[in-house]
Amino acid sequence: MASVPSGLEKGKEKERENGKPLEGVTNQKVKKEGLGWIEWLMGWFTLAYEMLFQRIVASNLENPLPLPPINDLTFIVTGSTSGIGKEVARQLAEAGGHVVMAVRNTKAATDIIKKWQEDWSGRGLPLNIEVMELDLLSLDSVVRFAEAWNARSGPLHALINNAGIFSIGEPQKFSKDGHEEHMQVNHLAPALLSILLLPSLIRSSPSRIVNVNSLMHFLGFVDPEDMNVTSGKRKFTSMMGYSNSKLAQIMFSSVLNKRLPTEAGINVACVSPGIVQTNVARDLPSVIQAAYRLIPFFIFNPEEGSRSTLFAATDPQLVDYCESLKAEDWPVCAFLSHDCRPANPSEEAHNVETAYRVWEKTLELIGLPSDAVERLIEGGEVKCKYGDSQ
């Protein structure tokens, strides 16, 4: 089991002290048009602090992170052919879990598994790992994946929504579904996948949904009526697209966690992996790529960056922590930092009114009815406007 000296309970106490939403934030009467300059500065300060001190803050963690017994547990990991997702999939499989690599490039995943099996040969039973195709830039693909998995009637103990994009410096791009690419890949597609897989998660409870997020959500601001940033009110930048998508993910996760009754046995958590050297660097300007190579001391490698996700996906402490937040009607879902301790998301993430509007708009954009979660919990079916069968 991962050893976290101060424990989730102490982190919760700290969250109480520092994280209680400010009056007026969750009950705003005046519509905000964007982040205030103080919120913006605090966001940049948070990012700078994490980059400079993340190794010191996480010095209590072992690397690799020891995992509790996970034999016979099943995990779906999106985006697992590189970076954090690749490390998460490998370590879960080597610890005895059944891992499903949900990826767009199935050949690359198959080649990776072949190498892992060769390296693992002689240490015990072969790794229990498989590949399924999933393209988050296509909501049809998401529906097909969920239908194929649910049709197995097998277990699913943790859905790890790891896949994401950050096209730094690129112009605004849209998926074939008509959504801004950051918003679709980082938020809309994982949201659709999470809801459609609820039948499998309920069948395997206690289970959990883990969303790999980012402290860059501190720089995000979501207008529920303009989630794709097409109204012209704001000038789009890739940083805006990424930050907004990560904030939307936290808001949606918070409402989803509230909508799931305790008896369903499903908990939702968002995690920050820290600032990690991953394939996102290939989209960075050459100058920033050079900086990435010059400051390896500050930036986590993928193995170090995978620890908070692995902790959230496997540690039994998380269940009690999430349930206590739900019982107290805490405004946001569990959010774990790169040191595997509870952290406080941004002030905007505590905006309950906006979170519910983001929830409603998200369901509309992904083609699900407003009562989709309730129907699935009761054992019913829901129709999505996406998918080949529709």
Features:
seven-stranded parallel β-sheet, about 400 residues, disordered N terminus, NAD(P)-bd_dom_sf, Rossmann fold, alpha/beta
Report on the architecture of this protein.
Residues 1-25 are annotated as: Disordered. The protein has one domain (7-377): NAD(P)-binding Rossmann-like Domain (Rossmann fold). It has 14 helices and 7 strands. The chain has helices at 7-19, 37-57, 83-94, 106-120, 139-151, 181-196, 198-203, 238-259, 286-294, 302-305, 307-314, 317-327, 352-365, 372-377, and strands at 74-78, 98-103, 129-133, 158-161, 207-212, 266-271, 334-336. It has a 7-stranded parallel β-sheet, sandwiched between helices. It is globular, with a radius of gyration of 20 Å. The termini are far apart.
Q: What does the radius of gyration come to?
A: 20 Å
Tell the overall outline. Answer: globular
Overall residue-averaged pLDDT value? 89
Number of helices: 14
For the sheet with most strands, the description reads: 7 strands, parallel
End-to-end separation in angstroms reads 44 Å
Percent helix among the residues? 40-55%
CATH class: Alpha Beta
CATH architecture: 3-Layer(aba) Sandwich
Enumerate the spans where pLDDT stays under 50 for 5 or more consecutive residues. 1-6, 17-29
The spatial strand order of the largest sheet comes to 3-2-1-4-5-6-7
Helix-strand sequence: HHEHEHEHEHHEHEHHHHEHH
CATH superfamily: NAD(P)-binding Rossmann-like Domain
Q: How many domain modules?
A: 1
Strand content: 5-15%
Extended strand count: 7
CATH topology: Rossmann fold
